[in-house]
Structure formats: C-alpha cells, structure tokens
Design a protein that fits this description.
The protein has 181 residues and is an alpha+beta fold. The protein has helices at 3-14, 30-39, 94-102, 159-168; strands spanning 21-22, 45-49, 55-56, 71-75, 79-88, 105-112, 117-122, 132-139, 145-151, 175-176. It contains four helices and ten strands, in the order H-E-H-E-E-E-E-H-E-E-E-E-H-E. The mean pLDDT is 95. The structure holds zinc ion. Zinc ion binds next to loops. Residues 49, 51-52, 54, 63, 65-66, 68 line the site of zinc ion.
Length: 181
C-alpha cells in the first residue's frame, strides 16, 4: 500500500463524514452477536430460560427472573403493544445523520406479550402509542440484527415480506455521499 492509499484509509477511519458509504453501528457484544445469529433464519428469536420459561431481552448470561444459567434461543411470539414513540432529530452516527437530513428517524418501545420491553425502528409512520404491533428482527446494512416495529396486521411471515419493510426504511442500504472516499 502506498502512502496516498494509507492516508486515504486513515482519513476514512477517522472522518466518517467523508465516507462514500456510511453504515449503521455494527459493534455488538458476544451476546449481541449470538442474538444476530439466532435471529437470521426467523422473524424473532429470544433467549428463554429452561428452568422458568422467562423470556429474556436484551440477551444476558443469566436469567433475570431465577438466575438460571441455561438460556436457549427459541422462536417467540412477535405480538406486543406500542408503549411510546419518538423521533430522532440528531445523531452522532454518520449513517443516521445522513438519513435524518431527509426526515426525522422514528423509533419506539414495545411491551411484548411474552414479557420483555424492546426498543426498535418504527416501520410505519402512522403507529401511535397503545397500538397493537408486531416486532421482528432483521439484519441491517452492517449485517447486525435490529428490531423493527410494524402494525399488528402487517404481513411479516416470510423473509421477503420482512426484507421489503426493511428496504423501505432504507436500513439495508448504506447512506451514500457523492464524492466521498
Ligand atoms: Zn429463569
């Protein structure tokens, strides 16, 4: 690698705003990586305690209810109720900075019927607090799993249906910059 390429690589690393393609955060803990892997083939998979059936989210080493240490991933019910919604008007992350320039980024929290409260990207602008919703997981442009919230009636049974929703959110595509490096 010559000096010019070296400098370009360093600049790209240190100045995300110059990148031709910015992606969402890809860093995950080891437990977060397990969550991503477990969720690849299904709409929503979660740790369930083999001792007490507690549904655990976010993933942890021990059961939050009985401290049991045998938590197994299994496909779980996606149904829940929207607790609150909000819009991000500012982000320190370049991917979201670029997305937010077009319009604020909607997020929400959901109380799942099987217990946990989760935070996710709102797949539909029209969702309101109290609405019946469904939550599914999907890999984003950084190949890391994120949660998407849609109204209860939205079809999410097939990978194609889920992919379509995530693509419409612009989460599968890097945020591009003309003339970036
Ligand atoms: Zn337990």
């Amino acid at each position: 690698m010559n000096l010019k390429e070296k400098m370009k690589r360093r600049l790209k690393l240190n100045r995300p705003s110059l990148r031709a393609r910015a992606r969402p955060p890809k860093q995950r803990t080891a437990l977060g990586q397990q969550f991503t892997a477990a969720n690849l083939p299904v709409s929503l998979s979660m740790q369930v305690c083999t001792a007490c059936e507690h549904h655990q989210y976010p993933p942890a080493e021990l059961c939050g209810h009985c401290l049991g240490d045998t938590l197994r991933y299994q496909e779980v019910d996606t149904a829940g109720q929207l607790l609150s919604r909000s819009e991000l008007h500012h982000s320190l992350w370049e991917f979201f900075k670029r997305r937010i320039r077009t319009k604020p980024w909607p997020i929400g929290s959901v109380k799942l019927r099987n217990g946990p409260v989760v935070i996710g990207h709102l797949g539909e602008d029209t969702l309101q607090t109290g609405d019946d919703v469904a939550v599914f997981s999907h890999s984003d442009a950084s190949q890391a799993s994120v949660l998407i919230i849609v109204s209860a009636g939205t079809p999410i049974a097939t990978p194609e249906q889920r992919e379509h929703i995530v693509a419409a959110l612009n989460l599968k595509q890097p945020a591009e910059k003309q003339g970036g490096i």
